[in-house]
Design goal:
The protein contains three helices and five strands. It is α+β, with helices and mostly antiparallel strands. The chain starts with 7 loop residues before the first strand and ends in a 7-residue tail after the last helix. Its EC number is 3.1.2.-.
Amino acid sequence: MSRSDYRFSFPLRVRYSEIDGQGVVFNAHYLTYYDTAITEYLRALGFSYQTMPEETGTDFHLVRSLVEYKAPIRFDDEIDCCCRTGRIGRSSIQFLLGVYPKGGETLLATGEIVWVNTDQTTRKTVPVPAGLVRRIEAFEQRALQDG
């Protein structure tokens, strides 16, 4: 996937506390970068992830996380964490992520995050809120929901 495939990116700067003894970003921090980018992506769509559980009685749970490292990212590097929705199932959303140097085209890392929406009382899967599906599809300018 190229950078032009993403309609959203969030800028980050690598902090000293995020690097390991080899001087590169410690692997677990990529998931924090991805989580931040997804949160900001949803915020840009006008979706309040924070109020969803109390308003709907449902919440998303992480069921898959994947990080693929392409090139080292070092202390003080400025990066763009790009985010898009890959697909929306009945109860799941797949987010695809790419990390690039600020304003650059060199792919540094990729990621996939899958959330499943669940009723917080029964712990059973429930459909992704229709309003969220509409917001995502309008932003991405394409249909994403299966079926």
